[in-house]
Structure to design on (79 residues):
């Protein structure tokens, strides 16, 4: 993979994983957003690969996702 594409790849992979785990848990984007203290639009952007959570939110987000959908930070950010 070209170095310049790594950011896009991370965005898509993270978003795909959030989408998959949210659906497995039977949650809507709005429900997950409420649980995480963000907007539904934020969750939509993450899942569609149009954005990433703010870096200051990554660890708290991962902790909350672990509680809500049972995934770890390691799972979310690794290939």
């Amino acid at each position: 993979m070209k170095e310049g594409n790594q950011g896009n790849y991370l965005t898509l992979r993270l978003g795909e994983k959030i989408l998959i785990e949210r659906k497995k848990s039977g949650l809507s984007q709005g429900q997950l957003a409420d649980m995480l203290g963000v907007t539904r639009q934020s969750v939509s952007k993450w899942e569609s690969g149009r954005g990433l959570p703010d870096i200051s939110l990554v660890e708290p987000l991962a902790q909350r996702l672990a509680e809500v959908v049972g995934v770890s930070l390691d799972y979310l950010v690794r290939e």
About this structure: The CA atoms of residues 2 and 20 lie 26 Å apart.
